[in-house]
Structure formats: C-alpha cells, structure tokens
Task: inverse folding
C-alpha cells in the first residue's frame, strides 16, 4: 500500500493534495455552524446528481409520455417513489441551503475584499442552479410545469427588436411543446456538470483566500486548526441534523414542495387559475410583478439577482467582522431578510389591491437597501471609528484602510 | 408551502404516537369498500388509469374477488372508464377527468373529494348544484341531495370510503414510504447523536488560547 502511494506521489500530487487541501487545510477555529452550509450544498448536489441519473433511466422526455412516465416511476419502478421524492425535495433543499449560505455571507460580510471572486463564482453557481431548477420543473409535464415554462420563456419577449424570435428559439416553436420538453431535458442533464465544475472553481477560490470567520479578524497560525478531524466531524454532525429535516419531508410529506396543480397533466387549452412558481423563486417573481410594464419588470427581476455581485463595492465600510460590530449594517441585514419573506408571501398570492401595494413597497425596500449601502456604510465607519471599537477590530480596520490605499 | 399541511403533519404524527390511528384491519376494510364504490360507480364514467386490476390484490382482495371486479378485462389492464370518452362528451359536455391522482391534484386532497361528492343540494330553482364546485357537470351520483336523514348517514359513510380509497389510489406507496421513514429517521437520529458526542470529544482536545474566540 505504502509503495503504491509512493508510486502515485512520484507522478501525481495525491498525498500533497489531501494533506494541503483536506486534512491539514488550516481553518479558523471559531467557525460556527453557519459555515457548514457550503458542505451541505455539496452533499445535496451529489444527491441530485445520483437520483437524477437514476430518474433519467425511467423517465420519457416526450410530451405524450412524460407525465405517465413519472407515475410509472412512482408506482412500478422499485423504490422509484424514493428516488423521485429525494430529487424533488432535494431541489428545494438545495435552494434552502444555498440561501442560508448566502445570508451568512451577507451577515458576516464574507463577500468583502479579498473574497470578491469567491462571491462572484458563488453568484454564477446560483444562476446555474436557478436555470437547472427551472428547466427541471418542466419535465414532469404537469399544469404548473407547462404554464410556468410558458410565463418564464415569454419574459424574453421583453428583449428589444428580436424578443419574439428569441422566445420561439427558446421554445423550439410558437408555444411550449414537445421540442421545448426535449431541449429542457437535455439542458437539465447538462447543467449539473457545469455546476460541478463551477463548484470546483468556487472551492479553488475559497482555498486561495481561505474562510472568513465570525470575528472578521485575520488569525495568526495558532488560531487556525486542521480541517480534519475538527471540521469533518462538525460538518458531519450538521449533516445529521440536515438529514433529519430532509428525510422528514421526503418520507412524511413529500408533496409539501409539489404544487397540487402539477399533479394535473399539462393542458395547453386550460390556464390554471393562478400560476405560481416554486417557493425559491417567489421573491423574484413578486419583484417582476411589482413593476407595471413587462420590460421594467424583467429588468428589475434580473437586477434583483445580479445586484448581489456589486456588494463588494457597495459596502464601503472597512470595519472587520461583518454585522457584529456594525449596528447600522446589522439593522439593514435584518430588514432585508424580513423584506425577502414579505416578497415571498406577495409572490405566492394573486396581486390584488392591498397586496399589490405591499409588493411595490417591499420591492422599493429591496433595492433601496443596496442603493443606500454605499452611503450608510461609509457614514457608519466614520461614526464607529469616532466612538471607538475593540482594540483588535480597530487594528484590523486600520490595516484594511492602509491596504486599500 | 402550506402551513396547514405542516400542522396536519405534526398532528398526524402525534395521533400515530397516541395509537388513535386506525388499526390496519379497519383501514383495509374501508379501502375495500371504497374500491367497490370506485369500480362500480366512479369507473362507469371516470378512468383510474394509473391503477391496474392486479393492484387490488394489495388491498387484501382475493384473486377470485378481483376476477369479479375486472369482468372480461385482464389482470394487468388499467382501469379505463366503462363509458367511451366520446359518449361522455355527448352526455356531459366534458370528458370526466381521470381519478387516479385526484386526491393529490386538488388543494385539500381526500377531504376535498369527500366534501365535493357530498356537497350536492337542490337549489331554489329545482336544479341540483354543488356547494364545493358550483356549476359542476357531474351528476349527484350518490343521490345525496335527495336523501332522507336516515339514508344520508349511510351515503356519508360511502363517500368517506370512496374518498379514502382515492387517497390510496393517488399514493399507493404511502404506507411503505412511512414505514421505511420511521426506520430511516430512527437510524439518522441515533447517528446524529453519536456524531454530536464524537464532535464534543474531538473538540475537547483543543485549548482555547485566545480569549473571546468561543
């Protein structure tokens, strides 16, 4: 065994890689459980890949057979119901985990210098995930699959001049139909490979700049500990808790994350009373509907996702430690989180009188959070430096200011 | 997505623990009675195409009983409607929807179906209408709008039986799923407790030299 590893090591940096990037990888010892969600996202990605490969063995990407083939999986395939519910619940779990991962990044300011590229590769992953989830949702060929795809592809008609051509090109026809289904299936199988590659790039960026930590201070070597066994065991315990929630839904209420309307086969002649996207798209959907005209709505929705990329520049404070030492930023963070839940509620309901106003106000709050950040963060920095901060934080902040020059 | 469903989930878990859930025998009896109503009444106009006659064997029916239910159809045949879709279109102006997934395709599920088939009443103008689905094209097949209080009681039981059966038809793997679920949850729970204890043990080796890092 030893000889074999030596043989490999002479030709490939196996031991070096495992030692430097896994077992001995220096990790701040004060990482809380909020830092475990990246690992969980990786775990869910593997679940989605494996269950997806098995589902594809039994699924038929044909508009006449797709709905029936899902029922074939549910009823006739050995443990087909388990594979499908792991996959359908896994999609929701993926977004839940990623949103918490992002909220942690926002709270602790982990997107700030020098972690901009880490943040942006994460953004790219989110966009890929959204596209994958959207295309996967068409595959069961239920009513909500069909009409959701119709509404979302139709958004591209907002493109100037060539809008209508783009919609036809995306759908492979004038309406969502068999060509749309087959191409979405093909892309839904392709994108997870892109996600896997992007996840590797995300990890390379992470291992270059290393993890941020709750204190925001840069640690001396003595405060870093090897990833293994400390964080392997911490992440595994977190995984246990995650699995209790995940399997709880998979085995006891798997239809919780499936809209009842999607158990009706797609019918192009009959629009459902209410077209509602999956829960993870609801806040963005509410923003789309809050703007009265189509082009404006589409731009606002796209911006609501892409604007996160600008955070490293919008947040002009150099106080380390994210929201911990920054009362103004902290308040903004909580207002923003509550605002997203409000938008989610608005997105799930028909936009009638009062709720329409709520959606518009929540959209305004959403964007003003980003627009006010450059001014409030700089003002807050000056204020905090004047009233004083803990010594280590003060030192770090002075260093940051020096380095930024 | 639906708060009510979460509470219902907790409530049903609590009921199971209290032993108030139906005994397995009662449940089979209800499902068997419901299966009779579904094949003899509903299936006249509605298909239940994701069910095969052989599926009835899973409800405790004997092969002879299923032979009677299937008539000249084969054991592996799906339950297509007795009435041809074209005839149904002429009679009702609509092809009656397939019922095999109905309990999953309506908000409220089994409860919705139960309320709908018992929701028929005679309106002021003498026509029959439905409280749950006004303007429904389906006739009052159980005759609930005409029933006197005594026979109404029996009809309510019949409605409950058939809606319970449709719940099973929409999710025949539910029992197997929950049984496996209890084993999985117990396993993961014990595993998680052990992982937590191991985590405490491993982290106990660390000395916290820098104060304030906890």
Result:
């Amino acid at each position: 065994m030893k000889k074999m590893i030596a043989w490999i090591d002479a030709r490939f940096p196996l031991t070096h890689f495992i030692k430097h990037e896994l077992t001995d990888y220096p990790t701040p010892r004060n990482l809380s459980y909020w830092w475990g969600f990246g690992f969980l996202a990786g775990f869910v990605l593997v679940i989605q890949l494996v269950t997806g490969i098995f589902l594809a063995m039994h699924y038929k990407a044909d508009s006449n057979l797709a709905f029936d083939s899902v029922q074939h999986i549910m009823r006739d395939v050995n443990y087909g119901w388990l594979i499908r519910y792991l996959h359908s619940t896994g999609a929701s779990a993926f977004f839940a985990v990623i949103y918490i991962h992002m909220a942690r990044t926002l709270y602790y300011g982990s997107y700030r210098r020098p972690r901009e590229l880490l943040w942006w590769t994460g953004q790219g992953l989110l966009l890929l995930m959204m596209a994958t989830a959207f295309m996967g949702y068409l595959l069961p060929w239920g009513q909500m699959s069909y009409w959701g795809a119709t509404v979302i592809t139709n958004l591209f008609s907002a493109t100037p001049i060539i809008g209508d051509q783009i919609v036809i090109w995306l759908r492979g026809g004038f309406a969502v139909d068999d060509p749309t289904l087959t191409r979405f299936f093909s892309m839904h199988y392709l994108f997870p490979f892109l996600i896997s590659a992007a996840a590797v790039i995300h990890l390379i960026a992470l291992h270059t700049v290393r993890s941020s930590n709750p204190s925001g201070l840069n640690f001396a070597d003595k405060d870093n500990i090897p990833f293994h066994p400390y964080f392997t065991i911490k992440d595994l315990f977190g995984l246990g808790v995650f699995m209790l929630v995940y399997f709880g839904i998979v085995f006891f209420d798997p239809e919780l994350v499936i809209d009842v309307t999607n158990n009706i086969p797609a019918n192009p002649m009959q629009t459902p009373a209410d077209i509602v996207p999956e829960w993870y798209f609801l806040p963005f959907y509410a923003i789309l509907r809050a703007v009265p005209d189509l082009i404006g709505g589409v731009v606002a929705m796209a911006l609501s996702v892409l604007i996160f990329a600008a955070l490293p520049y919008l947040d002009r404070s150099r106080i380390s430690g994210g929201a911990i030492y920054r009362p103004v930023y902290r308040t903004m963070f909580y207002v923003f989180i509550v605002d997203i839940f409000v938008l989610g509620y608005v997105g799930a309901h028909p936009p009638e009188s009062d709720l329409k106003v709520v959606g518009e106000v929540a959209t305004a709050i959403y964007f003003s959070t980003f627009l006010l950040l450059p001014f409030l963060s700089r003002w807050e920095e000056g204020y905090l430096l004047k009233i004083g901060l803990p010594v280590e934080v003060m030192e770090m902040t002075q260093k940051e200011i020096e380095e930024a020059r | 997505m639906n708060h009510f469903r979460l509470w219902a989930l907790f409530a049903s878990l609590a009921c199971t623990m209290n032993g108030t859930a139906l005994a397995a025998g009662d449940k089979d009896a209800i499902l068997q009675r419901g299966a009779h109503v579904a094949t003899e009444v509903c299936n006249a106009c509605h298909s239940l195409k994701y069910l095969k006659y052989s599926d009835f064997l899973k409800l405790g029916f004997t092969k002879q009983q299923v032979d009677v239910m299937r008539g000249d159809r084969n054991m592996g045949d799906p339950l297509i409607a007795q009435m041809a879709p074209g005839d149904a279109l002429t009679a009702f102006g609509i092809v009656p929807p397939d019922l095999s997934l109905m309990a999953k395709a309506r908000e409220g599920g089994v409860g919705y179906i139960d309320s709908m088939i018992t929701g028929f009443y005679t309106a002021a103008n003498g026509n029959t209408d439905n409280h749950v689905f006004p303007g429904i094209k389906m006739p009052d097949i159980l005759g609930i709008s005409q029933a006197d209080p005594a026979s109404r009681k029996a009809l309510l039981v019949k409605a409950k039986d058939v809606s319970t059966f449709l719940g099973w038809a929409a999710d025949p793997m539910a029992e197997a799923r929950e049984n496996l679920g209890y084993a999985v949850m117990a396993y993961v729970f014990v595993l998680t407790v052990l992982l937590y204890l191991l985590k405490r043990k491993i982290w106990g080796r660390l000395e916290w030299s820098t104060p304030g890092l906890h």
Remarks:
- The CA atoms of residues 325 and 389 of chain A lie 8 Å apart.
- Chain A has a mean pLDDT of 94.
- Chain A has 16 helices and two strands.
- Chain A touches chain B through 40 residues (CB under 8 Å).
